[in-house]
Amino acid sequence: MNKPNNFQRIRELNTVQKAALAAALMERMLPNYSLFSDALEFGDPAVLKNALALCWEKILLPKSKISIEKLVEKVEPNVPEVSDFDVFGVYPAIDAATALLTLLHGIQSKDEQEYVNVCKIAQGTVARLIEYQFELDEQPYQAKDVNQHPLMEYEVGVLSELIDFVSALNRIDKDNVKALRHLAVEDGHTNIGVEI
Question: Most exposed among 65, 70, 80, 196, judged by the fewest C-beta atoms under 10 Å?
Fold first, then answer.
């Protein structure tokens, strides 16, 4: 298999393409937070949705007067603590909030690695769910079992499709951001396969 892997392809994108890719993955992760928040009455999903909308605005209009610092201050109190909850859903919720903070830090510091980290967090959420399912079923598993699981293969496929889309963009404008956001959620599921 000599096809370059997704992370190699992500590293070859330019800064704005990486930022748009990370924001598109957030569109798939954020509903996990909303579901957790609604079920356990913790946090305010609207704060996170608003922060993501402003990230898109900043990616589109880098000179816009959006205070990333203020957004970080608003998002941080909405990150749940694992020890406070006895449900698996806390993990995808933490991952979504952490990935959003990572995206915000990337925009603020113009650090491309942060955008790559968002992609890694998104896949990590999927891996954790698969491992959790194996453990619930008391099945032994190895890394390859996780990587070859249909949910992971699907997530890798979606990521590949999103990379194809952003790598074809010469510039990011309102129309292709709209198309990218639609593409990210057109299957109607979050990155862990929960219906949106």
Answer: 65
In whole angstroms, give the CA distance from residue 104 to residue 71.
Answer: 8
Which pair of tokens denotes residue 167?
């790598």
Whole-angstrom distance, CA of residue 40 vs CA of residue 63: 38
The neighbour count for residue 119, using CB atoms within 10 Å, is 22
In sequence order, what are the beta bridge partners of 189? 195
Residue length, the chain? 196
Predicted local confidence at residue 124, as pLDDT: 98
Per-residue pLDDT reduced to its tens digit, 119-157:
999 999 999 999 999 999 999 999 999 999 999 999 999
CA distance 173 to 31: 25
Strand partners, 195: 189
Q: Which amino acid is at 8?
A: Q
Q: Tell me the backbone φ, ψ of residue 195, rounded to 5 degrees.
A: -70, 135
Tokens 């496929």 found at: 157
pLDDT at 130: 98
Residue 151: Cβ within 10 Å count: 17
Domains along the chain?
Answer: 7-185 (1.20.1590.10)
Residue type, 190: T
Identity of residue 93:
A
